[in-house]
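So, can you check this one?
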Amino acid sequence: MSGSVPAQGQTYDELGGKKVSDLISPDTSIDFLGNVTGTLKYVEWPQFNPAEESEQKGNYFPVHIDDKYKGKAITCQGEKTKEAEDLDWVLLVKSKGSKFTFTCEGKTILTLSFQGATLAPVSYAAPRRRAVKKTTDI
């Protein structure tokens, strides 16, 4: 396998300082076939893509590509296609059916599937209940 889940304490300074622990549960992992398990938290993250409002909230998944690909062009094909020499990627996972394939030098190095992952839903704060004064007639 050519990818792994970064450490919970890793921070993405260039993306507003989010930590891996802000994005996923500690039990999140990738098996040798690229199947992701664990919980991807629902996050509001305007810094993820300031130019695209539809990408500023959702379930994100951080992945580290094996160091042997350092300095090489890596292509990630999923909802969109992006090419970069980055080893650390953050993916916006829109559904359990999402798949992301990473290639380098024309060869597939990692395909991620989210069928076994839990995509946490939007969590809304519960409305505050007002105290109701009870009166009784005697």
Summary: The chain is about 5% helix and 40% strand. The radius of gyration is 19 Å. The chain has one domain: 3-119. The first strand starts at residue 3 and ends at 4.
